[in-house]
């Protein structure tokens, strides 16, 4: 389960980098949903590294959404 969480984390990290570009901030909404799914998979496993990776990406994505007003 931890491997699945880390794979989701890598995919969301790539999407987060794309979402940091101006006018593509709406991608961060997808990143938030995928991070929550990754956190759930990480919480089920014994190792917590996948959950930590997804949590960090979630915080960055939510900060970007907050600064962009939720849309941009």
Describe the sheet with the most strands. none
What is the N-to-C succession of helices and strands?
HHH
The rounded Rg comes to 12 Å
From the spread of the alpha carbons, the general shape counts as elongated
- Count of DSSP-assigned helices: 3
* Average of per-residue pLDDT values: 92
Find the count of extended strands (DSSP E, 2+ residues): 0
Question: Ranges with pLDDT <50 over ≥5 residues?
Answer: none
CA-to-CA gap between the ends? 33 Å
Give the helix proportion (percent range).
over 70%
What class do helices, strands and sheet pairing give? mainly alpha
Strand content: under 5%
Q: What is the structure about, briefly put?
A:
By secondary structure, this protein is mainly α. 76% of the residues lie in helices and 0% in strands.
Describe the 3D structure.
By secondary structure, the protein is mainly α. The protein contains three helices and no strands. The chain has helices at residues 2-19, 27-44, 49-67. Helix 1 (2-19) packs parallel to helix 3 (49-67). The chain is elongated, with a radius of gyration of 12 Å.
């Amino acid at each position: 389960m931890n491997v699945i969480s880390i794979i989701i984390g890598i995919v969301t990290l790539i999407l987060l980098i794309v979402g940091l570009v101006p006018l593509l901030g709406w991608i961060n909404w997808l990143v938030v949903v995928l991070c929550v799914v990754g956190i759930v998979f990480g919480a089920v496993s014994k190792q917590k590294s996948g959950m930590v990776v997804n949590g960090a990406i979630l915080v960055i994505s939510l900060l970007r959404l907050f600064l962009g007003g939720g849309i941009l």
